[in-house]
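I am writing to request your help with a piece of structural work I have in hand. I am sending you one protein, given as its amino acid sequence and as whole-number tokens for its backbone shapes. Kindly check, if you would, that the fold set down in the tokens agrees with what the sequence suggests. You will find the record immediately after this paragraph:
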Amino acid sequence: MSITNKLVLRFKDAIVQEYPLENEETTIGRKSNNTIEIDNLAVSSLHARVLQIGNKAILEDMGSTNGTLVNKKPIRRKYVLQHGDIIAIGKHTLAFVDIHATHVPDLPVSDEEDDMDKTMIISSKDREAMLSGAPSIGSQMPLAAVQVVIGPQAGKNFDLTSSITSIGKGDMCKIQVKGLTVGKQAAIITRRPNGYHIAYLEGFSKIKVNGSSVGSEPLTLKDGAIIELGDMKMEFFLKES
């Protein structure tokens, strides 16, 4: 079937991945056998699915524990998706995008974030650069890096040149950290105009900065900060003043 729609998975202001709806059924859930896996305890094993029937995409909640919301309203069972709809599953959101539409849907941000930290709509080229680890277009702030001081990769440096740097045991993460309790995408470091920030995403192992656990609210990193996750300890440092 030809691809006309896609879902954009997002956690707060971080775009995690895009999923073209190329099959008649797209499943969403915590288990790894889902088309879209969201490894978070608030998400059910099989939480929801999207069915492509003709030119319609139908979202169906699969009896999840915490329910599925569209545009901040819970759906009873099935919902016909329209371009720009925002699906909330746990703490993640999925934007439904009609590829042939003439406008890009606005992606909402957390109410507590200030204007400086709000997500901007970016081009496909910029988004691909963010996910691949390439430098983001237009970034003018000083560069930073982390150096592994304890762990299998001790001595290795990771330059934080992209808008988003993923940390975890998943294959897509730039900084790989092993361990049964480490999430596939355990945390992210975001590069914003006002500095570098780190936030916990998923997994039983919480990330720590200078000995204190970090939650889902982004924490600003300062030069010399010590980041810990699993059996790895890293030092954050600025490369330019």
